[in-house]
Structure formats: C-alpha cells, structure tokens
Write a structure and sequence with these properties.
This protein is 15% helix and 45% strand. The chain is mostly beta strands and 143 residues long. A seven-stranded antiparallel sheet has the order 4-5-6-7-8-9-10, with no helix packed on it. It has a three-stranded antiparallel sheet with strand order 1-2-3, with no helix packed on it.
Length: 143
Amino acid sequence: MKKILFSILLFSTLSCYAQQEMAPDFFSCGLRRVLNDSTHKVGFENKKGEMVLPAQYCLAERFVKKRCAVCVNAEWKDYSATDDVYESRWTGGKWGIIDKSGKYVKPCIYERSWNAEKACFQYVAPADSFYFTDKGKIVPIKK
C-alpha cells in the first residue's frame, strides 16, 4: 500500500512539474521565466510583470544566486511524426551563464551534459569547462 501511495504521489508531482514548465513558473531571485508562444523563446519578468530580460533564449534554467544557465542558437524541430512524447523541441545550441541584468558571466560556447556523480550540469568547451552547481557556483573542471 505504501508503494502505491508513493507511486501516485511521485506521478502527480512529475505531472505538475511538466505542466509548470509550459507556463510562467515561480519566482527565483525576483525573476521568473516566461515563454513567448510565437517564438518558443524564454525571457524573464519581475514581480511587477515587467519583462526585464527579453525572450531571446532558446532554453533557460531558473536563477540561482543571481545566475542562470541559458541556451542560444538551438534549432526548433518538429518531432510530431516520430515522437509521441515530444511533438517539437529545441535541439543543439550552446550554453552559457548570465546574471540578473542579462550580462554574460560565461559566454554561450559550452556543450551541456548532466554529471550524475556531481548531481549537477557540466559545461564543456575546448579551452574551459565548469560545473554550475545547485548553489549557483561556477566550479572549474581541472584538466
């Protein structure tokens, strides 16, 4: 019985998370992501509803300690003929880190992947690589 209740709770939590990703989400560091439906790009608004960072990012994480990972130059692809889960989505692109003013802390030149051992995303470029932790820290990867 406990397993069934846990499964129901987990499923409902994941469903809410998936729905939340399609709508403006909660505020983090005074900003929240907003999706432009016509361009599919993400921008950020403040608590007054003012767009403080225009919808110019293909993908964006939430702000953590006044920093945010963003993706640019991705390609919007239609997968409706071959994929039941994702009808369309961004693919490719390069990642970087911005501050709350939109200034780049790290330019969008990085490939991003999940590092399960560190439980955070890592960003890799030929000359420079780093982890962006859930505490908002940029930790260099030593080569």
